[in-house]
Model the fold of this input.
Amino acid sequence: MNGGESLARGTREGPSDDMGKEGVHLVEIIPKDLRRREDESSVRLPPYAPNQVIRLERVHKVYNTGEVEVHALRGVSLVIERGEFVAIMGPSGSGKSTLMNVLGCLDRPTRGRYFLEGVDVSTLSKNELADIRNRRIGFVFQAFNLVPRTSALENVELPLLYAGVPAKERLQRAREALAAVGLADKEKSFPNQLSGGQQQRVAIARALVNNPSIILADEPTGNLDSRTSVEVMEIFQRLNRERNLTIIIVTHEHDIAQYAKRIILFRDGRVRHDVPVEAPREAREILAGLPPEEEEADEYEDLGYLESGLPGLGTK
Done:
C-alpha cells in the first residue's frame, strides 16, 4: 500500500484515525487529484445507445453553505434505458433527492455530465431546462401539489396551458389522461372533494398529459394507506407495461420498491447497490386478492372495538 492509499483510507476510519498529531484533518493533506479519483464512481458505463433515456457520467453536486461544502452527489454514473421501472432508495441525506432534482432538470450538476435522450442538459440555459421539464418529464409528488380551487380536469390541463396547446386539444388530452387513471367521472371535482388516492391519480394524470419521456415520482405513496398505495403502483406498472414509459420513483418503503424492476440504493452520495428485481410484485394480482373496500372498513371497525378493550387503548 502506498502512502497516498493509506492516507485516503485514513479519511474513512473515523475521528480518532483521521487526525494528525497537530490536529490537522488528513483529508486536507491528500492531493486534490487523489481525492477526486476517490470520489469518482467506479462504474463502467456501456457505450451510448439511442435507447438510453438517462445517462449520468461522474456527476457531482456540491452545495456551498457558508464555510461548509456539502457533497450531495459524489461521482454518480448510471444508465437508465427506455421502458425501465426503477426504484431509488437510501437513508435521509444519502443523495437520492438531490439525484431526482438533477434528473428532473431542477438543478445542475456541479461537475459531470447528464444526458437526457442524448441531449447534454447540464449545459442548457434556465429557459431551455424549463422547456425540457415541460415536454419530456412528468412529476409526481408525495403531497400531490394540486391547485386547490381548480377542478381535476383543469389541474391536468395546466402543463398544456403552459405549453401553449389550443383549448380544444387541451380538453381532449386532459380527459384522456384522467380516463387512463380511472377518474373519467371525477373531472369536475375539486381536490378537497377527492380522497388522497384520487388526488394522487389526478397528479399522475397531470404528469402524463404532455406524453413525457420519463415519470419522476418522489415518495408517491408516502401519504397514502396500504390499499391505495397498491392502486397507485398498479397504475405505474400498467403505464410502464402498456406504454413502455420509463418510471423512476424515490421511496423509503421496501415493499413499494419491490414493484419496480430495478433498485438503486444510495448512501453518502454514491450508488452502493444497483440490482434487478428478479420477481417484481404484481400490483393487479395483489389488488385482486384484497377484500372489497366495504369489508376492509368493517375489519377496521372490528379492530377498533377490540382495541377499546385493551389497557391504554380504550377511550377515556
